[in-house]
């Protein structure tokens, strides 16, 4: 997909404040610092569209970007940020889960996990929740530039094996690096294909 325009629309503190849900939406989620905002920037070819930081907990609101005047790309706050109090963490979880369950134009959630680690409990629990809640999602491995290719392949296989313990059908998976601009094209191709399908089938998000 060619990115002609990518513009910040607004930041929202709750799902009710998000922009009108009239066009398809795709959201990035994952634990704090996994690289959500960086991958959005890499895919959009725009260094500073979404705010990034080496310190976890940078994105604290739901951020909407309008792409090609046609669909929304959404940057969500990370889950599992350890350095805030339990009650604030709970507030974030609520913000995220309410958004996911209520946003009726949300077509697919991209769950980002760090390609360097073995499957983490918090990510597996979130993926489990998506599956049980009927939320359509894909898994995106991030920061693959930090790994030797054979280790990256091993880690993805490890993830598949872990998920196969619970699920027969596995979600789509993407291996990416914001740093080296790897994998973003594949995600955009999926989004393009999905948008075309929605258009061809006259899918509307009206209530
Ligand atoms: P929160 O907003 O805090 O939830 O974090 P986030 O998931 O949006 O992460 P962000 O994009 O801010 O990136 C966190 C850190 O990881 C930054 O220091 C980035 O430079 C670094 N980073 C992100 N993507 C990559 C990547 O593909 N490769 C490398 N080497 N570093 C990356
Ligand atoms: Mg962020």
Features:
single chain, 207 residues, alpha/beta, Rossmann fold, 35% helix, globular, binds magnesium ion, GTP-binding
Q: Care to give the gist of this entry?
A:
Pfam families: MMR_HSR1. The chain has one domain (about 5-200): Rossmann fold (3-Layer(aba) Sandwich), CATH 3.40.50.
Give an overview in words:
By secondary structure, this protein is of the alpha/beta class. It has one domain (6-199): P-loop containing nucleotide triphosphate hydrolases (Rossmann fold). 35% of the residues lie in helices and 20% in strands. It contains 5 helices and 7 strands; from the N terminus they run ββαββαβαβαβα. The protein has helices at residues 36-44, 86-102, 121-133, 149-164, 184-200; strands spanning 6-12, 25-30, 62-67, 71-75, 106-114, 137-142, 173-175. The model has no long low-confidence stretch (mean pLDDT 93). It binds guanosine-5'-triphosphate and magnesium ion (MG). The site of guanosine-5'-triphosphate has 24 residues, from helix 1.
Which ions, cofactors or small ligands are bound in this entry? guanosine-5'-triphosphate, magnesium ion
> What's the arrangement of strands in the largest beta sheet?
1-3-4-2-5-6-7
> How many strand segments?
7
Number of helices: 5
Can you tell me the CATH superfamily? P-loop containing nucleotide triphosphate hydrolases
How much is the radius of gyration in Å? 16 Å
Largest sheet: 7 strands, mixed
- Proper CATH architecture: 3-Layer(aba) Sandwich
Number of domain modules? 1
